[in-house]
């Protein structure tokens, strides 16, 4: 028997085997860690999405009131997702934010969940707004203009730090869906969706507004059927989702 044959048939030394096993374990551990790092931040389970309902047809007398139908017609998370809404419940109690900061660099985010969303979705700008008669110059005109039906040529991202308000979005049947946002709600509206915003009767909301790149706040008031962002929205969420 040659030396090499002897080596081939000999069982591997226990020490070496242990080293190999440890390496394998290490490899598995790294892969698991990598998986955690690359896992996308899951949206919040359906039963924790904000309360939403169909509004009655026609103008509303008081935009800050709930404006529900009688009987109420609730809108669930699946229906909101279908028209392009994304939603994450955040921990707004654990971190403090100023009442007003323009701009606020999302690189300064200390909340790991906010950091993850920022990195995954490319948010590179943020500011903080407080809508309240004593905190927002030109409050009355601003509240009126937020409530004009409009679209944007970019995603709208709002993280509610405190207070509450209503985002109204048009569904595929062109009805108003009223979404009651509150502290901890981080919601995105897709580019091109018809929408509007109002504070509720508590008259105060404190929110972070995030943006990919330089912010463009320009609202394009309805009708905007020929606007490229509207066309994109209709193709993606109205025509494709028709059953
Ligand atoms: C805006 O563009 O400033 C708004 O959407 C106002 C509402 S922020 C909760």
Describe the structure concisely for a colleague.
It is an enzyme of class 1 (oxidoreductase). Helices cover 28% and strands 25% of the residues.
Describe the structure.
Strands 1, 2, 3, 4, 6, 7, 8, 9 and 10 form a 9-stranded antiparallel sheet that branches. The chain is globular. It has helices at 3-9, 14-38, 77-82, 112-121, 139-146, 228-239, and strands at 52-54, 86-89, 101-104, 125-131, 150-151, 156-170, 176-182, 185-189, 195-199, 205-211, 220-221. The protein has 243 residues and is an alpha+beta fold. The chain is built from 6 helices and 11 strands. Mean pLDDT is 87; it is low at 1-20. The protein has a single domain (44-237), classed as Jelly Rolls (Sandwich). The protein starts with a helix and ends with a helix. It binds 4-(methylsulfanyl)-2-oxobutanoic acid. 4-(methylsulfanyl)-2-oxobutanoic acid is lined by residues 129, 146, 158, 165, 197, 205, 207, 209, 217. Residues 13-40 have a biased composition (Basic and acidic residues). InterPro entries: ARD (IPR004313), ARD_euk (IPR027496), RmlC-like_jellyroll (IPR014710), RmlC_Cupin_sf (IPR011051). GO terms for molecular function: acireductone dioxygenase (Ni2+-requiring) activity; acireductone dioxygenase [iron(II)-requiring] activity; iron ion binding; nickel cation binding. This is Acireductone dioxygenase. It is a peripheral membrane protein.
């Amino acid at each position: 028997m040659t030396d090499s044959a002897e080596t081939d048939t000999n069982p591997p030394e226990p020490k070496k085997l242990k080293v190999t096993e440890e390496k394998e374990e290490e490899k598995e551990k790294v892969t698991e860690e990598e998986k955690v790092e690359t896992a996308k931040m899951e949206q919040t389970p359906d039963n924790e999405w904000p309360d939403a309902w169909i509004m009655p047809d026609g103008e509303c007398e008081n935009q800050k009131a709930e404006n529900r139908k009688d009987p109420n017609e609730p809108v669930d998370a699946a229906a909101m997702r279908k028209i392009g809404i994304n939603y994450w419940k955040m921990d707004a109690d654990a971190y403090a934010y100023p009442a007003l900061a323009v701009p606020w660099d999302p690189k300064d985010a200390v909340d790991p969940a906010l950091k993850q969303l920022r990195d995954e979705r490319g948010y590179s700008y943020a500011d903080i707004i407080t809508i309240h008669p004593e905190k927002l110059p030109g409050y009355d005109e601003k509240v009126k203009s937020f409530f004009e039906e409009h679209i944007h040529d970019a995603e709208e991202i709002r993280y509610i730090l405190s207070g509450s308000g209503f985002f109204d979005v048009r569904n595929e049947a062109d009805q108003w869906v009223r979404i009651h946002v509150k502290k901890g709600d981080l919601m995105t509206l897709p580019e091109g969706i018809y929408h509007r915003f109002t504070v509720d009767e508590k008259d105060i909301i404190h929110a972070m507004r995030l943006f990919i790149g330089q912010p463009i706040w320009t609202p394009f008031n309805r009708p905007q059927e020929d606007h490229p962002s509207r066309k994109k929205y209709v193709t993606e969420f109205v025509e494709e989702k028709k059953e």
